[in-house]
Amino acid sequence: MDSAQATSFRRGALETSSLWGRDWMIPLWQAGADEVLGARDAKDVNRLRAKGGWYVDSALGDDGDAAHLGATWAALEVLDALGRLDDLPVADRAATVAWLRSLEGQPRALEQSSALARSLQLLKEPVPGSLTRIAAPSTDDFAALTPDARAIRLADTYNYVLIQEAAGKRPDVNRKVWEPVLRDGVATLTYEQLHDLVHVLKAAGSPKNVFARVLKRLDGERLDDGTVRDPDAYIGDPDASLFVQRLRMLAGWSRQDPGLLTAVEREEKSGEAGQKGAERLNRAALRKVTADGGTSEQARQLCADPQVLPATVTERNATQWQRTTLNCTDAGASPATPEIATWNLDTPDRVVAAATVVVGLADSGRRDRVSSWITAEALKQWARNPDRFTSVYTYALVVRAYSLLGGAPDVTLREALGRGITPYQGCAGLPDLFQVGGGDTACDLKTTWGVWTLDRQLNGIIGGLPTGTANNGKRATVR
Predict the structure, then answer these.
(1) pLDDT tens digits for 58-84?
(2) What is the phi/psi pair of residue 224, to 5°?
(3) 0.70 cut: is pTM over it?
(4) String of DSSP letters for 37-101
(5) What does the alpha-carbon distance between residue 300 and residue 160 come to, in Å, rounded to a whole number?
(6) What is the pLDDT of residue 294?
(7) Residue 257, SS3 per DSSP
(8) Hey, which of 24, 211, 250, 356 has its CA 20 to 30 A from 446?
(9) What value, to the nearest 5°, has the Cα angle with vertex 99 and ends 97 and 100?
(10) How many H helices and E strands in the chain?
(11) What stretches of 304-437 show up as alpha helix (H) in DSSP?
């Protein structure tokens, strides 16, 4: 990878998850992409460690044992890959081991059990017999299962294998069932399913020739720059559709879209729609803005649920809180004003988190509730230096916050906008959209929404809104 590509991969991963995002970078780093991980990541990971011994990743959505197990597993994998796991202070390691041991013997899903087993293995602790005695998921009824049930059975088998491997045991896997599944599904399985099935069969001792068609498929989907395309990534989702509706609103276009509403209803009736609180809220917001209907009781309940919308905002969950608050506002619900923690504005990530809070409060009609420690003066130098940020979207957030707090769009700021935003406008066939930045030249809905919102707030001085839109600097220039 060149530097720009590595930066793009890293940024996208960390925006999704601060811990699992780093875990996803491990294979790339081990393959020679040195810039996707480094010594600073070990420090950042350890900052996400709680006093109880577990690690916290706000992207996992809740604060229970399942989320803590997943975050701890990812954190330990990153520290181990970087060779920094042995650097853990004795007391910290002991606290993590004690917490993991406290979870032994409790019935839990195989996914959680595998995270527990692998975490103990990484810490060079024995895996308890209560986990290794778990039997392999049955394959006797596999032919009669629905496609969804088969996918679940594969995931369970993969997690069973991870447990046995963590304990140094050979898993008891029925190759006569799983090898034909790979053979018949090699062209259609998702990449995640393909990964899990290959792992299961390698652990079971399948010969190399079983995997020949897997290699052929991957080579056939490789692009010129070495990356591999993922056809599933081109499937639309409610989140992207919501950003389209927000862009339509900013441009003054109608948001009435019968086809989009039909697609939402079809997904829900299919039984394939995600049922997590955030996903249900997303669809409720999309229905509201598309059909211009009333606020549903479900949306009100979800926006009052602290498991969906955090009641306290920290630098770690600011993005989750802001995006969920925006969805609540679109859905017509009125979320409560959160408690806001305090942190230093001494790194780009912390500045972006503070700016995210300001923007989230403003977009939900609570601009007057911004904490006194977040000021225009504190954000001034950051807003004037776009090079400190790795994406156009995060820089736009900081400038929005600076402006909302009273920062003036003086000559210095206008010059900064000319460097940090203007050059990133337009892609082939999409002249009004904005690129991600930081080496990623793809245009992005979220980035475009961030810039258009900022431009409207600044009365069109960027000239980024579509021609003919009110508050567009380009319109004034044409006149």
Answers:
(1) 776 656 888 899 999 999 999 999 999
(2) -60, -30
(3) no
(4) S-HHHHHHHHTTB-TTS-B--GGG---SHHHHHHHHHHHHHHHHHTT-GGGS-HHHHHHHHHHHH
(5) 39
(6) 80
(7) coil
(8) 24
(9) 65
(10) 22, 5
(11) 318-331, 348-363, 376-383, 392-404, 411-420
